[in-house]
Design brief:
single chain, alpha/beta, nine-stranded mixed beta sheet
Length: about 220
């Protein structure tokens, strides 16, 4: 039974997501909806129109058959001040062209898919949106294998590879890599849009996710 003292977090995924939810469930009522059940994600959002955040774990929302759900999520963020975060398996299965199109056409955001790389990412001083106390509770840096974003404004870039960064790939060795964003969290209308490119669910990413959801405050 939901605890009325806790915020509601919605998860859109394929099937049932089990792992990695312990800390989230300690701080929030977590409700999941599967794309495999027609209309279930939309119905969940209608049940909880003032949910604290939506975690979009699988990228099916960008597909044409989910265009109405996409519209509802954009409205939830832009018009109702909600928080929507792309993460989990999202970056592993999204096609770059689909993500670029969705960000541009549905969100009006300039973010674009960049490099796919493992490197150390740093918490960015230029980012705005998280309270100082929240920033103090997430890592200053950590190693992340991620589908990075480019064209992210400094104010929207929460974690990024620094100038002069090098690959930490065991295959290609310490070659230079671009300075790009692994976690973005930017103002979008009245709300916030987030993205985590991490494909391995690193602890640093999990903490940043909770921070973007307001669950570390």
């Amino acid at each position: 039974m939901a605890d009325p003292s806790k915020p509601n977090i919605l998860i859109f995924c394929n099937g049932e997501l089990e792992g990695g939810l312990k800390k989230m469930k300690e701080k929030a009522n977590v409700h999941q909806a599967s794309y495999n059940v027609p209309g279930e994600p939309s119905s969940l959002l209608q049940r909880f129109p003032s949910a604290r955040a939506i975690w979009i774990v699988d990228p099916n929302i960008v597909e044409p058959q989910n265009s109405e759900l996409s519209r509802q999520v954009v409205e939830y963020v832009k018009s109702r001040g909600g928080v929507a975060i792309m993460g989990g398996f999202f970056s592993s299965f999204i096609r770059p062209s689909d993500l670029n199109r969705w960000l541009s056409q549905s969100w009006g955001m300039p973010w674009r898919v960049g490099q796919y790389e493992r490197t150390t990412v740093l918490l960015q001083d230029s980012h705005v949106g998280l309270e100082a106390a929240t920033r103090a509770r997430i890592p200053a840096s950590y190693s992340s294998k991620a589908l990075f974003l480019e064209e992210v404004a400094p104010s929207d870039s929460l974690y990024a590879s620094p100038e002069g960064a090098r690959s930490e790939s065991f295959v290609f060795g310490p070659v230079p890599v671009k300075a790009q964003t692994s976690i973005a969290f930017g103002k979008c209308g009245l709300g916030w849009l987030g993205y985590t490119g991490d494909v391995n669910n690193e602890e640093g990413t999990a903490e940043a996710l909770l921070a973007m959801m307001g669950l570390l405050e």
